[in-house]
């Protein structure tokens, strides 16, 4: 697929297949088109040409909420937790596409609304416990540290039990210890739940450690794909992006 903005080609004939139940990393320099790719997948932008298939069914042209309801959820580069809402309420918001009671029922205060709220709270507590953030449930979402916000946002994406989870730089700004914790969490999400994860990330150590497959993008197009070992030894990839950062990873290994 391809998409251009004002004559600038953001994605240039991108052809990408992601298998079920894997962690698929997408790396590349700034401006490579990585976030645009996630925006197209989630319906924020529409490709000029091409198609996007989820288990064989096209999702191009669907509104973002319908794509979310189909099982694709994401996090963003910057925190979107709402200040003035508890962490629990922020995670409950991730269930908006699955709530059964409508606006009329809410306005009338029907029992179905109470059941929806209780079910959503229970699911949100479970999601927070799963990511190790259960103790934060009653904290204000806007008062968390940056690292805590990143983990809570993953809980909010997971609460609706997605088939595909898109993560846009989940490790940005995290300490080495928190990166290690994130590594373990992503493996559990893949192994315990069978969720397919597509992850944009600049922390190369995390990408190399946790990703089953890696696609490298440059100037809006993929330039390499393979295992971590294959990609990190690709001359074009090293020249275009990894360089000395890759050498540092190799030395630590």
Descriptors for this entry?
alpha/beta; 2 domains; 10 helices
Question: What's the short story on this structure?
Answer:
The chain contains ten helices and ten strands. With 253 residues, the chain is α/β, with parallel strands linked by helices. The chain has two domains: 1-71 and 162-253, 3-Layer(aba) Sandwich (Rossmann fold); 82-161, no CATH class.
- For this structure, the CATH topology of the largest domain is Rossmann fold
Any idea what the CATH architecture of the largest domain is?
3-Layer(aba) Sandwich
End-to-end C-alpha gap: 36 Å
The strand line-up of the biggest sheet is: 6-7-8-3-9-10
Residues in helices, as a percent range:
40-55%
Q: CATH superfamily of the largest domain, called what?
A: P-loop containing nucleotide triphosphate hydrolases
Number of helices: 10
Q: State the shape.
A: globular
The total number of structural domains is: 2
Number of strands: 10
Structural class: alpha/beta
- Chain-averaged pLDDT: 88
Radius of gyration: 19 Å
Largest sheet: 6 strands, mixed
**Uncertain ranges:** 101-108, 248-253
């Amino acid at each position: 697929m391809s998409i251009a903005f004002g004559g600038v080609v953001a994605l240039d004939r991108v052809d990408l297949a992601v298998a079920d139940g894997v962690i698929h990393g997408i790396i590349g320099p700034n401006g490579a088109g990585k976030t645009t790719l996630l925006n197209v997948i989630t319906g924020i932008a529409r490709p000029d040409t091409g198609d996007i298939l989820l288990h064989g069914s096209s999702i191009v042209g669907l509104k973002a909420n319908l794509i979310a309801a189909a099982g694709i959820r994401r996090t963003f580069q910057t925190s979107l937790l709402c200040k003035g809402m508890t962490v629990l309420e922020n995670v409950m918001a991730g269930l908006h596409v699955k709530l059964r009671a409508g606006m009329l029922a809410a306005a009338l205060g029907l029992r179905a609304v109470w059941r929806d709220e209780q079910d959503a709270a229970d699911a949100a507590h479970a999601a927070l416990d799963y990511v190790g953030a259960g103790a934060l449930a009653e904290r204000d979402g806007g008062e968390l540290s940056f690292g805590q916000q990143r983990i809570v946002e993953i809980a909010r994406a997971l609460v609706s039990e997605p088939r595909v989870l898109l993560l846009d730089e989940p490790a940005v700004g995290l300490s080495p210890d928190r990166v290690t914790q994130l590594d373990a969490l992503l493996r559990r999400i893949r192994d315990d739940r069978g969720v397919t994860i597509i992850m944009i990330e600049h922390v190369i150590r995390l990408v190399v450690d946790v990703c089953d497959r890696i696609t490298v993008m440059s100037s809006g197009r993929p330039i390499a794909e393979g295992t971590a070992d294959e990609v990190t030894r690709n001359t074009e990839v090293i020249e275009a992006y990894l360089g000395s950062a890759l050498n540092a990873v190799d030395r630590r290994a």
